Amino acid sequence: MASLTHRRIVIAGGGTSGWMTAAALGRFLDESWQVTLVESDEIGTIGVGEATIPMVRNFNAGLGIDEAAFMAATQGSYKLGIAFEGWGGFDESYMHGFGLVGRGLGLIPFHHYWLRARAEGLAGPLGDYVLNAVAGYAGRFAHVQRAEGSPLPPLPYAYHFDATLYARFLRQFAQGRGVVRREGRIVEVRRDPHSGDVSALTLADGSEVAGDLFVDCSGFRSLLLGEALGVGYVDWSEWLRCDRAVAVPCAKVDPLVPYTRSIAQRAGWRWRIPLQHRTGNGHVFCSAEMSEDEATAILLGGLDGEALADPRAIAFKAGRRETFWERNVVAIGLASGFIEPLESTSIHLVQTAISRLLDFLPSGPVADADRDSFNRLAVFEIERIRDFVILHYAANGRVGEPFWDRLRTMDLPEPLAQRIAVFRATGRIVREHDELFDVPGWVQVMIGQGIVPERWHPLADQASSADLKGFMDTLAASYLRDAERMPTHADHIARFCPAGELHA
After folding, report:
1. Whole-number mean pLDDT of the chain?
2. Residues of the chain with CATH 3.50.50.60
């Protein structure tokens, strides 16, 4: 970077990723940093990433954002998990609920006891022992504060929100903390002839925005990292064959459920995301198996309410950039890569990239060792998330449909193939380093889609059948009672964060 007294960061692109980045930099950097965001009103944003996972709460809390104000401003609702319908089989469904699965007895995870109890006919479906799933299907939600020593688990949650309104909310936040917005379409990325670093962005009106560090939030185009610096793309379409989506909002319908729905279709899946003012809908599909017209017809035919806009088509290719930080350019969001929205991880990847950028923020010239560490961590994170998403396709139970039959027999990335083999044989999940999805998530998806271990941990055999049945029955009944004490999701929102009301 140019000097210690004149540090300029330029963000290329707005939308959710751009304004999340701007908001964080505006919050945590002092006046010695100049942060400028360049965006054009001529260029639309994707804006379909409206479902999140619980870690987004840490991002908002770190910025000091009031939850009720944020929820009201973004027409938000709460999310306890994702209901997968038709993935394990045409008529089967399960929920990947946030939080714990059951309650362990001693040294081993709960699911080993459940596996034994299931084999002996002493247990119900796994979801009966996941509080988030029980409360979600009951349409209940509350901000749960547990007393110390409570036998009941926490109720972790995330959000559904209007991504366009979230970007607008963060724009106001960032500009209030010194971030400068420059309106204009980028027509040229200028590079220093000696170092090869990006030096400035030329806008359509002829003006330039110079900087020392550039953040590429330009979406799928990857204007800086991909086009200007020529960083290649690693294609994952051999495993993630969906490459198109059609999205449309519809009128909201009751009940206002606290979970996302993912509904398997002939050559892909549909999402349903409930907000306070509308429902977000989309159909992710494989263009080699289905035309856009057919995908759109399936989407419109499955709406719960009247369509509120024309369907919008989005093309994408699952994969990632070969590197995420090249020279003095860091890519965040779609400019760095894309999996697909199946497990609502896109905004999380933006969040962790911002955190990583702050961790490795240079005070002078960028060190190769820092860049290499940044890229190594970013690759590990996105590839482990990729594997978790691939699992849903590989373990599908939709026999007789060409799209799904091929996915069920495809060769898998080695870490995923090994993880499935170990779980099928022993019921064990080994979490590596700080990968995003922990044991409860892997267990719920694997068992939900029919990968049932052949054995369980030997310590699960030490309880008597009577004691095991009593434990299972007590646990399921306590979770059901706990959920029944909560207000409905709609009632909680009406009291805490109704859209349109002002909050200090």
Report:
1. 95
2. 7-50+162-237+318-366
